[in-house]
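User: Please work through this fold.
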Amino acid sequence: MGTAMMHVGEQRFSLGNRIEVRGTAQTTGGQRLTLRVWYAPQRRFPPLHRHPQQTETFTVQAGELTVQWMDGSRTYAAGEGFEVPPDTPHTMRNAGADVAVVDWTVSPALHSGDLFARLYSRRPRPALADVLAFVWYVAVSRRYRPEIRLVRPRR
């Protein structure tokens, strides 16, 4: 699908957030992609989306993370975790005042490492670049249909 790759220990940045790669498809035999994410406080929700073939598991290590589901929202605090089953529309953000630290696993990995390598830069970017990153997110999501699909919110 592409040649963008992430490596264990690597850090990347997007929309004010930072990710650290903990495990890749290459290091887990394709079983999972494992990340630690530092969610910046008071950011907007990214687009509502779903993962047709993948399960995501999140554990909040510090701060809090608000997840928007189709039927409402819930805020998870440090020590809490949750799972997003395949094909479940969701989005999340840190609505708190402090950075939220979250462990995140995507199973199976598929090409998610390649997707995130394209969405997240190797260096922090200024705000304008974050707007462009959002546009890139929408464009890239079309290329990775087995990994992610954008969802139209109900009115």
